[in-house]
Amino acid sequence: MIDTRVKSPILAFFIRYIFFFITIFAVYIFLKGHNAPGGGFIAGIIFAISLVILNMALSADEMKQILHYDPLQIATTGLFIAYGTAIAPVFFGYPFMLHKMIHLHVPLLGNLHVGTPVLLDFGVFLVVVGVTTKMTFTFSHSSDSDINTLAQDESGLSNTNEEPVVAPTNEQATTE
Amino acid sequence: MAIESLLLIAVFLPLFIAPVVGFFARSLSLNVAWIGIGTAITSASLIGRIIKLTKGLPFVISYNWVPAFDLQLSFLVDGLSLFFGLVITCIGAFVLFYARFYMSLKDENGRFFAYLMLFMFAMLGTVFSNHLLLTFLFWELTGVASFLLIGFLYNKPESQKGSLMALIVTGTTGLVMLLGILLAKSVFGTYDLSLLIAQRDSLVVVGALPTAVMALMLVGAFGKSAQFPFHFWLPNAMAAPTPVSSYLHSAAMVKLGIFLTARLFPIFSHNPYWGDIIVTVGFITMLIGAVYSILSHDLKAILAYTTVSQLGFLMGVYGLGHMQLLEHDFFHILNHVFYKASLFMVAGIVIHIVGTKDIRKMGGLFRIAPFAGMATLFACMAMAGLPGTMGFISKELMLETLLHNAQSHGGIAWVWVGTIIMSAICLFATSLRFFKTLFMGTVPLDLKDSLHAPGLWIQLPPLVLASCLIIFGLNPELLGHALAGLTVSGMHAIKMSHLALWHGLTTPFLLSLTISGLGVGLYTLFERKHWQMEIPKQLRFDTAFNNGLEGLATLSKRLHSWLRLDQSQDYLGIVISYIVLMSSGFILYYLPLSTIRFDWIRLEHIPATVIGFVICVFSIAVVTQKKWTTRLIALSVVGFFISFYFVIYRAPDLALTQMLIESVSLILMLLLLSKIPKGMAIKEEASVYTGAKKRVVLLISVLSGFVMMIVLWFLLSDPPATKLGDYFIDKTNSLAGGSNAVNTVVVDFRGFDTMGEISVLVIATLGILGLLMRWQGPTEESK
Amino acid sequence: MTTITILIVGVLFSTSVYLILQRNIIPILFGFSLLNHAANIFLLAVSGDPTGKKAPIVTLLGESYVDPLPQALLLTAIVIGFGVTAYLIVLLYRIYLSHSSTNIEDIYND
Amino acid sequence: MTNWIVLPTILPLLLGSILLVWRTPSVQRRWASALTFIGLIAVSKCLLWKTLSEKILILPMGGWKAPFGIFLSLDTLGAIMVTLALGVSLAALVYGFAQQSIEDEHPMRIPLIFFLVAGINLSFTTGDFFNLFVAFEIMLISSYSILTLEIKEKDVRHALPYLAINLIGSALFLCAGGIFYALFGSLNFADIAQLSAGYANDPRLIVASLMLVLIFGLKAGFFPLYYWMPNSYPSLPTPLAAIFAGLLTKVGIYVIIRIFVTVLPHTLLAPHQFILILAVPTMIIGILSALTQRTIRGVLCFNLVSHIGFMMVGIGILTEQSIAASIFYMMHHVLVIASLFLITGVVYRISGTDELESGGNIWKKAPWVGVLFLVQALALTGIPPLSGFWGKAMILQSAIEGSHWILVGSIVIASVLTLLSMIRIWFAFFWRDNPSTTLNLEGTGWKWMSLSAFALVLCTLVIGFAANPYIRLAQQASSSLFDRDLTINKVLSSPDIKSQSVHSESNGGHH
Fold it and tell me: What CATH class does C2-49+66-108 carry?
């Protein structure tokens, strides 16, 4: 159903613009999360889905240019932010994970309570983006031997002892 | 030095010497035995010194070890322990001396002598310990040490078999004894032996639990002392090198059971079953051992069975509980120690000379090994109970007591008289055979060339030991003087002075004469038949034991496959069925189903009803549809409608999340299905259940839904408690600074869960990466 | 309302268990997916009958809101379930690659 | 200071993520991970020492008042388990270093071990029902990942049973969480403990508690819920198998102790009777299966299963003494099983096989490996004064005092058969001349491997010969478990740090 080798130029054209709007939407969802349905997780997965769709349209190199970082690194950064938010209060003599709030008035978005919970939520956002894209990219590429080297380079979690998983050669991967 | 330090050194010296021996074995080779001999003599002399100092009064030394478990490092110094300590160390010295000249190992001397030292330590510990748990501890240590020694020539199959048998039998009986000990603690309130002995008059030993304590502990003693029905391990333990046999089977380890019985005697002898159990077991053992000994033809097996017989005799002494016998228990034990140790040593020498164990192929060795022959002569005389030896006196005493007993009690007591007479006849014949076949007559032709004379030194220990039999047999008072002061509380003070060589023409003496005559007769009978009779197969407990082990293996294999533990593909069905059946059982048993409240569907529920209907229909479609694609579509419909259902439940965050997650899962599932060829899908449709299996699967699945339904129904019958939720609603704005309570719970109130959740996501990605990058690790080291 | 939820839970559990007990890895995957849904709805149902209550976006104290806690727990559970399901999908793919079959019998008798 | 109890969880998580960035295996990376473990062990020792005087340490996450926020609470039992988990993991880690050269090391192995340890430690420290679920999931997903990380091509299928069973367990766990919330409106252990006293005869609570036995029985390996285990563990690399075998089943046992001793009322007898009934087949069938196995690891796996039954006996009897017995047995068993797996790895390394049929010659050529194995085999059997004896004797004592004669008999039978199964290995690999097996004793790798196994053996020897402080520790852990009121008071009366901080913040803003 999804043939990763077909890269449609029309789809690519549209998706670039759609991608832009989705990103804005994701940021909105993320920021409103504390007071309305939304939050880091939902924003993250929306953003990740847009990246996944983008991936269908673009070639691996283009995709790499857009992403710039290995998704796993993004996810790890998210983890660090979340852990950091949790650990920070300890140094001020507070219990682990205590959150502090700052109240801000931002035009367009209205009353914002910016505080450490946002940082944790941002960590969640990054993790979800990184994890979802990493999972789908690696899995969709895994039957394709030449793209697999990319996956290998990206992850960095491999060495000479690893050999990419390749589908049995005699049976062509076919769509249903 | 104080008694404490003397005793501690005497007991622990062998333990500390063991590694030293192991260490020096490389440079000193066999001469390392001298270190061991020195140790044994030192310990023996220390014990001798203690005898002088204590003057026969019991003495307790205690140190805390594990007070949390009431265990003290507590030693009881009294006549019994000192006597056994002396036997262990003295015979140990003889055995080590013998081993010095017997063993011819290249690189394993150190191990051998270290084991022997360890063994000596374990036995000393057992006899001196005053605390039942400590006794058990050393008891098991002797078992382990004997396992290592019996299996010392480990690459021989019979070594493995013999050591396994010894370990399992003594280990199992030891565990039973542990039960007895633990039970004793809860019945009598203490593990302290000296305390128990001191309170023996006020202790209630009658009744179910005390009897159980006694029986369980006696099982331990029976196992160690190779009493019926555990007698079979001893002959099989003969796979050990001969010095070990001589130490294990004559002097020491097998006597531990006797020791324990003697220890327990003052405590339990008032129990009505004490005598019955011990006498029955002991005398049956005595008869079996004697009969089997005459039916065996392996030199060491013959000796092993005579040992079994004699152990039964010694055990029986404590069962009869007759004061005159008990007063001389040390005499009986020493008699056996001396003759059996020397006979084993001789057997080792002989086997070494002739290169075979079959007694029927031997003969005429006196000229080659005259000292060994002398030793055998003395020892066999004692074993046969001929006048002038310790064996004679021992047997006379026993006969006299039994006759006395029979006259006063009648009935079954006469059976025991018959038993001892029969065993004595067999033993007489065996002794005669042993000496005659080995040392008289002519050397068989096929052995003539291979014979080589043994050294003088190696013949010395058996000769010295055997001479003791004669010396003390002729002058029993001598022994009485030597053992004076070894009073055992609750049992006796040593009075050997009235032991005499000649009691006059009494009934026992006449019986002795009869026994001798019949023994010669039996011998002649067997000699005529060329010793062709064997132990009947069905009465060989060791084969039964081995068959039992094999049967156990077969049984466990059957059970294993019957429970389908070897079938990886069935685990899931079994576990799920189990969980479902159990849970439905609980529900039917515990939940009062009649109290269920039914909540009718009202008008405002219509949207929920429609969505619920769709979910149900499509989830059933996932099951019933044939094509994977259809199933997948049905599945995603279920997923999306569940997010609608979340909307009904006023959960906008959940609905969004569910929808998005459903999409990503769908992408992943599509990716999976796109990688599996279509042909496979069609082929696999055939592999569903049919018939009865299908019905079972259906039943289990319907039952599982039923269980969860009932549980939920019950939960919702009462309005659910919402303590936490109320607080969150209340504080989400004021304390967490957000109006979306779900979000504040997720990032603030319970932010730690979210941290865990994102960690799970990252780890799952790592797992996926690991799966998609096939690891070609270093093959030979990957385990 | 609760009756419908209870029925959904029952059907979802039954169908999922039936699928998990099949002899093919694809139905098993579907089964686990349904099992996740079943457990999720079970957990959500614990917040009680939502009829007449508002979503837990608190603008005015004193009004009747549904219990936010089960929803929050469920959010965590859904995400964790997603991670595990993704892993399961890839594992099944690897199993398929190693044995060139999706049939449980073939796989374990290979 | 209270923040310390999150360290055993957060530090491994943090280091695991750091090692995801610092990807290339190197000597420095190894040192960093080993030193982290050593540091954590020091921390956990301090915590253990502190729990002895303070009974229970608590940390309100985010400063929220009990029972509303997530609470971490650490009592003596938890501290013991954390220390053990860290110790075993360190030994396994060092063993892995000795076993593999740096070039052969999988870059994800150490991070995943860290994540696994984090999950395990969180399970031991959490005081919240749903957080326990999260901890379990961290632990499980790490264990799946580890299981399939370096797996052999055809062994991938053995991960499926493990995964499937645990998925079912997780789904049920979630439902159980729902049941508890619906009943008590709370998820905090202390709070539930206080509330549940009034629910002792509530049929819903009885059914829920019986389901909990099934759920955690899956993790712990009760009969017949252990079916997944014997196939999954042997496909792991040795050090990881040691962690799995030593720790993962014990987490199940720990949680059962935690929930049934400190959370649910003791008057709830049904689950305990159920555990006692299950204990008998767990012990007997487990050990009979061990006799059918053809590999050392197979034998060990089923021994593991069988001995879970011993701990179940202690839990089922439910007296202060019997729980102490189970705790002590658990301490012993973690160390002994882990070290036996490591020793098996050494055996595999030098003889190239772990099949009973093809082994041999080790006693002659490498007697020290034999000594290590024999000591641990005897400890496992319970030969005094090795560590297994005390635990077993304590369990037997409680069973005798409760007059559970069938259990007593089963324990004796299981012990004897344990001995038999271990001696089979001993004969096959150590006391046999097998001309077709050549031992490879070159190189120093196996010596270092033996050394880290020896470290664990040494621990068991210490526990065995100097048993007193450890038995006292187990007794103290048990008595603080039984001191429910203290725990409840301490947790529920904890200060409301969050509102204080918010108030001080708003006050500060005004002035």
Answer: mainly alpha
The 10s digit of each residue's pLDDT in D459-491 is 999 999 999 999 999 999 999 999 989 889 988
Interval D263-285: pLDDT, tens: 999 888 899 999 999 999 999 99
> Do B388 and B344 share a domain, yes or no?
yes
What span, in angstroms and rounded, lies between the C-alpha atoms of D80 and B651?
42
Chain A, nearest residue to D107 by Cα: A157
On whether any CB of chain C is under 8 Å from the CB of D145, the answer is: yes
Interface test with B, best of D128, D423, D449, D473 (most B CBs within 10 A): D423
Does the CB of B702 have a partner CB in chain C at under 8 Å?
yes
Same domain? B457 vs B330: yes
Q: What number is the average pLDDT over the span B134-160? A: 89
B443 domain residue, yes or no: yes
Query: Which pLDDT value is given to residue A144?
Result: 42
Does one domain contain both B368 and B486? yes
CB-CB: which of A34, A124, A139 is closest to B754?
Answer: A124
**ipTM score assigned to the predicted complex:** 0.93
CA distance linking residue B374 with residue B460, whole number of Å: 11
B376 shares its domain with B508: yes
A1 found inside a domain = no
Q: Residues B250-309: pLDDT tens digits?
A: 667 888 999 999 999 888 888 889 888 999 999 999 999 999 988 888 888 888 899 999
Say which DSSP state D483 is in. -
Using a CB cutoff of 8 Å and minimum separation of 24, what contacts does D492-497 make? D492/D66, D492/D67, D492/D190, D492/D191, D492/D194, D493/D66, D494/D58, D494/D60, D494/D65, D494/D66, D494/D71, D495/D65, D496/D63, D496/D64, D496/D65, D497/A94, D497/A95, D497/A98, D497/D60, D497/D63, D497/D64, D497/D65
Chain D segment 361-390 residues within 8 A of B by beta carbon are: 363, 367, 378, 381, 383-385, 389-390
**B742 close to C (CB below 8 A):** yes
On whether both B684 and B697 belong to a single domain, the answer is no
Residue A176 lies in a domain: no
What are the C-alpha distances in Å from B695 to residues A158, B603, B688, D190? 48, 38, 12, 45
Cβ atoms of B777 and D150 closer than 8 Å: yes
Domain ranges of chain D: 269-465
Quote the minimal CA–CA distance from B219 to chain D in Å: 14
Domain definitions of chain C by residue range: 2-49+66-108
Q: Flag whether residue C79 sits within 8 Å of chain A, measured between CB atoms.
A: yes
| Domain extent for B354 | 322-531
Contacts of C92 in chain D (CB under 8 A): 160
Q: Is the dihedral of CA B749, B751, B757, B758 positive or negative?
A: positive
Given B688, B712, B735, the domain boundary residue is: B688
- For residue A170, is it within any domain? no
Residue B179 in this model has a pLDDT that exceeds 60: yes
DSSP structure class, residue B596: P
Put simply, the answer to whether B715 touches D172 (Cβ < 8 Å) is no
- Residue-level pLDDT at A1: 39
Per residue in B579-596, pLDDT (tens digit) is 999 999 998 888 887 777
**A4: in domain:** no
Shared domain check, B783 and B746: yes
Among C57, C83, C90, select the one facing A36 at the smallest CB separation. C57
Q: Which chains form contacts with chain A, at 3 or more CB pairs under 8 Å?
A: B, C, D
Which residues of A lie inside 8 Å of D (Cβ-Cβ)? 72-73, 76, 79-80, 83, 86-87, 90, 94-101, 156-161
Residue C76 contacts A, CB cutoff 8 Å: no
Phi/psi at D295 (nearest 5 deg)? -120, 155
Q: Do D3 and A79 touch (CB under 8 A)?
A: no
Residues 571-610 of chain B with CB under 8 A from chain D are 571-572, 574-576, 578-579, 582-583, 586-587, 590-592
